[in-house]
Amino acid sequence: MATENSRWGKFQQVMEKNILALTLMVALVVSVGGIVEIVPLFYLDSTMEDTARNPDGSAKFPDVLWQRGEGQTLADWKPGEGVRPYSALELAGRDVYQREGCYLCHSQMIRPFRDERERYGHYSLAVESKYDHPFQWGSKRTGPDLARVGGKYSDEWHRQHLRDPRALVPESVMPRYPWFDEASIDGTGMQARMRAMRMLGVPYIDADIEAAPALVEGKTEMDAMVAYLQVLGTMINFREGRDYRE
Ligand code: HEC
To answer: N or C: which end of the chain has fewer CB within 10 A?
Structure first.
């Protein structure tokens, strides 16, 4: 027990009376705690499934990341072939998702618990957010998690739901987004965004960026949002019985 005159007692008195000292001390303690937790993650290969290795050095999960073949474009990718960069249209949808603050009500991270697995599907892998800058994990679920919403509904369901959620789910508190149908996507703007993503490490090749304006030509924000929602969680082909946890 620290008494008033012991060394700790004096330290405590200083901390309780001097707000600046207390602030500095709290900052120090919190940053040490944070650094100890975060730094090892940068050095552990096994934190990302695509860099995890078997003892013999071979890739542990070779099919979680899409390997682009010679001369292949994003359009050559098939669902389940592994995580790939978003197409220009999907990326445009993602931008709208962020602009509208969908992440304030929807998370995109399925935790490895039984109830989450039964409701949403396989828990999220780190590699699934590899090309997300910034990631959309979120911490609020006013609405359901969207990490695996891709393929759950038809495109038309999403369109109607975004225009007027209560037309499909009467008790919904989700806002209406009718303006998605009117706003068009700017192709040159998408090229700049893809270049920015490339600077952040997303492996877009020149052909992807050159093809962007033609891909988003005549598309609305609604088309982009639906394309984005429909690809969520569909990139990896989860194998039955395989344990992706380290
Ligand atoms: C105020 C909170 C709120 C915001 C903001 C919000 N949503 Fe929702 N969302 C909900 C709620 C609640 C539900 C469940 C009821 C329903 O389906 O409408 C839902 C359901 C959904 C669903 C169906 C999910 C499923 O598995 O059934 C999708 C898809 C969706 N939202 C997409 C979006 C997108 C895209 C945006 C941004 C443009 C958005 N939401 C913004 C609250 C919100």
So the answer is: N
